[in-house]
Design a protein that fits this description.
Elements: H1 2-6, H2 14-21, E1 41-47, E2 50-63, E3 70-80, E4 83-87, H3 89-99, H4 103-110
Antiparallel strand pairs: 1-2, 2-3, 3-4
């Protein structure tokens, strides 16, 4: 997936970018029957200059101990008005506030170390 994401560039049409990115899942180390979807996450922002969609793609996954048991490196691709607006966290961060995004939403979008919520001791599973 890394090679595919590297072929994406700002200004490229959304259709061309999606043809390159595809929808192939990415293998999850230790969980062959539960791969990461492509895109991994999507975030929609309504901005003063129109809607923006940011999708993150897994470019590296490695086994880890603890929670979560797989750590990922992802790369965002931002789409606006039928074209790629940005690729990579550096470009997204540089444009984030101008797009109308909050810092809380950016932190949430970048959080790849998510764990399932623990069950309460007295609650039914």
């Amino acid at each position: 997936m890394r090679a595919r994401v590297e072929r994406i560039a700002p200004g490229q049409s959304e259709a061309a970018a999606r043809a390159i990115l595809g929808r192939d899942p990415v293998e999850r180390p230790g969980h062959p029957g539960d791969p990461f979807p492509s895109p991994l996450r999507a975030l929609a922002l309504e901005t003063p200059s129109g809607p923006l969609r940011i999708e993150t793609y897994v470019v590296l996954a490695r086994a880890a101990e603890g929670c979560p048991d797989v750590h990922v490196e992802d790369v965002p691709v931002a789409f606006r008005a039928g074209a790629v607006a940005a690729r990579g966290w550096q470009e997204v961060e540089a444009n984030w506030r101008a797009w109308g995004g909050s810092l809380e939403a950016l932190r949430d979008a970048r959080d790849t170390y998510r764990c399932s919520q623990p069950h309460d001791a007295g609650a039914a599973p």
